[in-house]
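Dear colleague,

Thank you for sharing your sequence with our group. We've completed the structure prediction you requested, and as agreed, I am returning the results in plain text so they can be pasted directly into your records. Please verify that the sequence below matches your submission; if there's any discrepancy, let me know and we will rerun it promptly.
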Amino acid sequence: MDAPGQPRPAPFRIALVAFPGIRAFDVSVITEVWGVDRTDRGVPPFALRRTAATDAPIPLRGGLALTPDRTLTWLARADLIVVPGLDDHVTPAPAPVLEALRRAHDRGTPIAALCGGAFTLAQAGLLDGRRAVTHWNLTRLLRTRHPGVTVVPDALFVHDDNLWTSAGTAAGIDLCLHLVRTHQGAETAATIARSMVTAPFRTGTQAQFIEHPTPQTDRDADTLAAVRAHALTRLDQPHTVAELAALAGMSPRSFARHFQATTGTTPLRWLITQRVAAAQKLLERTDLPLPEIARRTGFGSEITMRQHFATHLATSPRDYRLAFHRSAPRPGVDTAPAHP
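Please find the predicted structure tokens below.
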């Protein structure tokens, strides 16, 4: 709720780019993240618009249809553009869509593509010479059809030059929540994730899929979950792989191997990610001094915390607090009417 006398935040504007062949699932994910009013729970307002070359209804698989409410010219007003994946991953996008995406990228507008949406960005020539990811089963096809793209073989999402791409299905949710976290803060992303009953935070570098082929592997996963819970409740303390391995009753080498197989990342990367996430929450929710936040989250020093914020979030703890502290004005606050 807006405080009395405070200017009303201008909605963050998201353009969903629609054309025949896009996936209904991805449209639903984008709509669930940005198309639901959660301002009563402290989430800033969003303005999600369904843009297309014409206003004609667009058929989706399963007997569904999407009715555009804006033309592609609205992309010039968008703060973020999101391209859904495709049912047929080599579906050619209409020329007006490709041209609109090129113009948007030239303006510096962030563009995100879910799953096979990477093929659409590649058709527009936006991924040439850049890193991108798609569903693991489409990696070879993307390389073959668009050899100028540096295809990352196994990641949930990738960022390169204001362009975001994600792996398949659930990774699209991860990317959308990450974009909320980037623009509106970790607390907002966590609130939306709770509403969607989904995990609030998976890093883009995690593996796309994790196999559990045997009951023994499942028992190992339960053991490692207990170790992770132990570390999370003691983030202020130093943790070594040897110490965590001992808690799991494994050798350090075996522990590291099983940890990566279970979580898709290494123990050290996982621990740093959790420390950054915990620091984000304290920066948003409290007025604690930065050295105290660094101590409570296990970074040890403000300098170390600042280095990891630069690596993971491309900002500093101080600037993050200025942007996302609960008492700070939200980005985009304006007394002028929002763009329709």
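Summary note from our side: The longest strand covers residues 46-52.

Kind regards,
the structure core
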